[in-house]
Amino acid sequence: MPKVSTYNIAGAQTGEIELNDSVFGVEVNEAVVRQAVLRQLANERLGTHSTKTRGLVRGGGRKPWKQKGTGRARCGSTRSPLWVGGGTVWGPHPRSYEQKMPRKARRLAVKSALSDKVNTNELFVLDEINLAAPKTKEVVQIVNNFKFAGEKVLFVTDHDEIVTRCARNIEGVKAVSTENINIFDLLHYTKLFVTKSAVAKIEEVLG
């Protein structure tokens, strides 16, 4: 089982913790991680883009000029795609970009990302996060205590709404609860802080 150090919010080491090998010690599967990232980004697309075909554009009911004898090309409608203001050919229409992925594969992607954080020493386990006051500067102080100013930092807690709100206005910092962990955040943020209670919850769900 992988072992990592535990810290308090002041940045001082307080001990060690053994992590579940089936969650934090799996072999990184890059193919599954890539598929999971693409799925998440695709599912976030709204797909509300739309264009009008010649049948949807207003106007064009009367034939502009007679078929023969004018010397001009024959034309049946001013809403033809060839005309300015006409319809659009092969334009986008509302659709869903949703991609399916097996639950086991999605969980393997998250496990791979967590294991990679352990392998690269970018996962830090905090005993708990006790803020002196529900203020943004308290979370900034935690980041500064670890000398991670300017880094992209992700906090994972077990339903700590105060930390989530306090980290909301800090550029490059985000806080989520255990059920909102996703593959994109794990890859996007370089430093990962997880509380002991969150570690237990993650191991319970993914183990």
From TrEMBL:
SUPFAM superfamilies tied to this protein: Ribosomal protein L4
Alphabetized UniProt keyword annotations: Ribonucleoprotein, Ribosomal protein, RNA-binding, rRNA-binding
Compositional bias of kind Basic residues: 60-71
Gene3D superfamilies recorded: 3.40.1370.10
Chain intervals for the UniProt region annotation (Disordered): 52-72
Protein's job: Forms part of the polypeptide exit tunnel.
Protein family: Belongs to the universal ribosomal protein uL4 family.
Self-association state and partner proteins as the record states: Part of the 50S ribosomal subunit.
Protein name from the UniProt record: Large ribosomal subunit protein uL4
Originating species: Megasphaera hominis
